[in-house]
Amino acid sequence: MTRPDLADPFGTAALREGIIAAWSSSPTRLREDAATEADHVRAGYRDRVLTELAQNAADAAARSGVPGELRVWFAEGRLHVANLGEPLDEGGVHALTALRSSNKTGAGSTVGRFGVGFTAVLSVSDDIEVRSRTGSLHFSADRTRAVLAERNLPEPESGVPALRLVWPTETPPATGSDTEVVLVLRPGVDAVALLDAFRSEAHDILLELPGLHTLVVADDEFTRHRRELDSGLWEVRIGDRTWWEFTGASARWLVPVVDGRIDPVRNDVLRAPTRSDEELSLPAIVVADVAMQPDRRRVLPGAHVENVARGYARFVAALPAEQRLDLVPLPGFARSEVDGRIREAILDELAAGAWLPAADGSADLVPDRAVALPGLTDELADVLGEVVPGLVIPELCGPRHASALTAVGVHRLGLARLAELLSGHERDPKWWNRLYEALTPLVVDAVAAEELASLPVPLSDGRTVTGPRTAVLATQLQDLGPVSMPWVRLVHPDATHPLLARLGAGTVTVEDLLADPALVAAVEDTDPDDIDPDGDFPAGELADIVLRLVPLVSPTAVPRELGALLLPDTHGDLVPADELLLPGAPLAEVLVEDALFGTVDPSVPDRYGADALRAIGVGWGFTVLRAELPTGPDHDLPDEHLWWERLDDDPEVLVAVRDLDLVDDRRWSRALTLLAAEPATAEAITDPAGYTAWYLRTRASLDGRPLGHYRFADDTLFEGLLDPCTHPDASAFRSALAGTRIDDTDLAQTLLDRLADDSRSPGPAAIVAAHDALAAAFSSGGLDPESVTLPDGVRSLAGVVVDAADALVPDRPWFAAAIPHDRLVTGGRGTAHALADVLDIAVASAVIDAEPVEQGRSSTWEREPAAVLAGIIAGVPPPRGVLALHDRLVVRCSGALTGEVEVPWWVDAAGTVHCTPIGLAAALTALTAPDVRTEP
User: Fold this and answer.
1) Where are the alpha helices (DSSP H) in 269-353?
2) Rounded to 5 degrees, what are φ and ψ at 168?
3) How far apart are CA 493 and CA 457, in angstroms?
4) What's the CA gap between 207 and 804, in Å, rounded?
5) What is the dihedral of CA 342, 348, 353, 358, to 10 degrees?
6) Beta-strand (E) ranges in 133-205?
């Protein structure tokens, strides 16, 4: 065995001689070697100095089983690249000098396959040393050029092949290193820029070459730290940057992580294991075991790049659930043929694997069995879990992930389809309420609302209907408990939600429900045989819900038609509610003996309360009817048509007390007390023109006399003619007592009789008021004069009763001063002829002739100071015409009144006004009244 030469341990002299001999024997070989080396530098291995040296370092560390370390620094014009690991051997030397051979077999952890990668150093240097513990080498373009000249070999046009001839050197590697490459940088190469470029590559190199653990560039150290996560992924950290790594059958996948969330890669290249020129648009970094061309720039034709995708679905499944879709390649143009093939393979892998997280927490879903509901929330997912299988978690259902879901074939569920899927499902109303609440955020516009047009809705009667537009909401029923309202499509109270109104459901109040004609029809159509008095609802199911609704509204809002609701009485018979009284009702004390009122079974008020029963017409006290915009006497009120005939216009609201015709005439005093005690009935009496006040005034009686024949104690209008009402509650029904008008014949007859009754002593004001009211009542056509009997006597202004034949009505004001007060009968201004007709007595002008005895001094109103002053005092302008002034005015009378009478003023047959000074004011006031006649 030949002992190695310590000065040339790798036998470089023999290698040089062999290569020189080959060049000498074949100049073409020299040119080929030079051209090949130049091509590698210019094309395949351009800008790959650090990458190629790092690969060699990683291989050396892997072969020696130590963590790889590579240090790079610049000193004294030289770039130093030192590493730990297996040192240089003879096979390595041969690989370095042979452009087409390599001592790497591909086994184990080595990644290079061609020794030609070392030519990358020629891009920055023509003078290269490889120093190793086992020996050192020197490559030099200058020394090679000198050999060519020495051997008379021509220098190729492409330059000398600097890496074909090698010389031994004794310089050892840097301390702490096993191998060191030293490059004398070519002039023009910027060492600072070169080191900056190396720093920018550091992270990629450490990710690509797992055999390399640490990379130091000048003073900057980059170290890869790796730990396994619970998910099965590995966390890779280099400085402050983090990646999650997954190893598949043919590739390693890495994705950057920022603050616990992946940051998908936008643009990258295939790494096999180092960066190639195959551009990729995948969301993760792929370091693949793929057959590459010798320069590792492109994939070999026919290489099965699709194998790279195997295991990608498991990689995605290991990610946090809400981040998985971020690693789905989105639709778009492929950046290269390889990119397109890998993308398609990945999508096929994802489409076949179970990796989509299920909203119900069950096993991951295969995309073609998964469903994504856009806008899905946790609350909605929880509600739909049992109804819509295969729902993807809400975090993956947003618009941001729509393209990714489509790419892997996940079915997207629209709101319209969801509504269809919900049809036919029977669920508790509270479940539907939860569904509506969860759906609310998804209904953002009219389009979404229209899609949910067929959403099922549970009703109060247990049915479920299709579409909110066919149902109505009553928001006041939440606390009512289970209800069934067969007359209306009412949403069950436990399911009621504002969303239904937005989707077209109508909104009704309890008042609307009670006023629904369908309910009235149902009440009227109730068959007594369908009600079991001994069942859960002794009043019947319809009565049960009505009596539970009634307390939610004002009693005045309850339709009177609900009084037909059948309820059991104390005998077990079913009787309309408005024909029943509550047990102990005070109304029973005032009714006639044959009143058709029974008593409701005590169990009914015990269950529903007296107020609810009273609202539908069950009696306690009197009940009040209220009707908006009535149009005629069709409210079943006694003598209603007679009251209606008195009205000039229909009232806007009819408020009336019912059943007054059933009061026993002997018990009106107690009845009036009941009416006054209840606010509703007391209010109904306050309108003098209203039905209730009219009925009491004309039909009620106290001590055998109609109530309308009494006056209120403080009302002195008819004092002395009508007696005051002494009932303790008279103030409550004051409007039902006599007023200023005479509404009925009985009152008119009473006043006529009492005016002729000597035992009564009315004052002049009361007498005039009575005459005024009588004249107005008969002259207006309201009363028929033939309906009363006139007494023989009438009441004069003096308060005495005078024979009607002797009485006179002053139809012209100046006659009032001439007629004696004991014969004078008068009413208010303008009532003379009407009063004379009512009382059948004469008017003065028709039966008396009278003229002034003297003509007086002729003047005019304007010329007389006293006349003008009288006008000022009276507040009227002086009339035009002749004025005859008298110191004392006497008229001579004939006819029904005879003799001479002194008067303050008079108008003669010619129309001339005669006045005394004291009569001026009276004359002015009387003559300026619009109804005074001065002509004969």
Assistant:
1) 312-317, 337-352
2) -75, 155
3) 11
4) 135
5) 100
6) 135-140, 167-169, 179-185
Indicate if the pLDDT at residue 648 is higher than 90.
no
Type of residue numbered 443: V
Task: Give backbone dihedrals phi and psi of 779, rounded to 5 degrees, phi first.
Answer: -70, -25
Q: Taking the chain, what is the end-to-end CA distance rounded to the nearest angstrom?
A: 179
Would the pLDDT of 931 be above 60? no
Q: Report the candidate in 637, 683, 680 with the shortest Cα–Cα distance to residue 662.
A: 637
Angle between helices 12-25 and 90-97 (to 10 degrees): 30
Do 274 and 285 touch, CB atoms closer than 8 A? no
Please tell me the number of Cα atoms within 13 Å of 179 on its side-chain side: 25
297 and 353 Cβ atoms separated by less than 8 Å:
no
CB-CB contact of 839 with 833 (8 Å)? no
- Quick one: how far is CA 800 from the chain centroid? 81
| Angstrom distance (rounded) from CA 532 to CA 126 | 114
CA distance 303 to 293: 10
d(CA 359, CA 378): 8
C-alpha count within 13 angstroms, C-beta hemisphere, residue 813: 20
Q: Is the pTM of this model over 0.85?
A: no
Residue type, 91: G
Look at the block and give the residue holding tokens 């100095």: 49
Average pLDDT over residues 524-552: 76
User: Which pLDDT band holds residue 356 (cuts at 50, 70, 90)?
Assistant: very high
Distance, in Å, from the CA atom of 912 to the CA atom of 207, rounded to the nearest integer, reads: 135
| Structural tokens at position 828 | 């208010």
Distances (CA, A) of 708 to 264, 397, 463, 711, 716: 97, 81, 58, 7, 15
| Rounded-to-integer distance, Cα 633 and Cα 733, Å | 23
CA distances from 565 to 486, 522, 541, 550 (A): 15, 9, 11, 13
CA atoms within 13 A on the CB side of 509: 10
Query: Cα separation of 502 and 449, whole Å?
Result: 7
- Give the tokens for residue 694: 């009219």
Q: Do residues 833 and 810 lie in contact, with contact meaning Cβ atoms separated by under 8 Å?
A: no
Residue 93 burial class via C-beta count within 10 angstroms: exposed 0-12, middle 13-18, buried 19 and up: buried
Give me the count of residues in the chain. Answer: 936
Q: Is the pLDDT of residue 39 over 90?
A: no
- How far apart (Å, rounded) are the C-alpha atoms in residues 342 and 332? 13
- Classify the C-alpha dihedral 387-392-394-398 as positive or negative: negative
Instruction: Give every CB contact of residue 428 below 8 A, 6+ residues apart in sequence.
Output: 494
CB 424: neighbour CB atoms within 10 A?
A: 9
Q: Return all residues near 522 (Cβ < 8 A) that are at least 6 apart.
A: 486, 487, 542
What is the percentage of the chain residues whose pLDDT exceeds 90?
71
Question: Residue 372: in which H helix or E strand, if any?
Answer: strand 371-372
> For the residues of 565-621, what is the DSSP string, one character each?
-EEEBTTS-EEEGGGEE-TT-GGGGTB-TT---EEB-THHHHHH-HHHHHHTT-BSS
Q: Phi first, then psi: what are they for 107, rounded to 5°? A: -85, 160
Distances (CA, A) of 393 to 398, 400, 409: 10, 14, 16
Which residue is associated with the tokens 């008593």? 599
State how far the alpha carbon of 355 is from the alpha carbons of 345, 365, 367, 381, 405, in Å.
16, 6, 8, 18, 12
CB 29 within 8 A of CB 22: yes
Q: How far is residue 144's CA from residue 181's CA, in Å, rounded to a whole number?
A: 19
> Which residues in 789-798 are b (16+ Cβ under 10 Å) and which e?
ebbebbbbbe
Under DSSP, the state recorded for 73 is E
pLDDT value of position 530: 65
Tell me the per-residue pLDDT of 653-699, one tens digit each, with 9 for 90 and over. 999 998 899 999 999 999 999 999 999 899 999 999 999 999 999 99
> Closest by alpha carbon to 290, among 235, 282, 826, 301?
301
Task: Tell me the mean pLDDT in the region 705-726.
Answer: 95
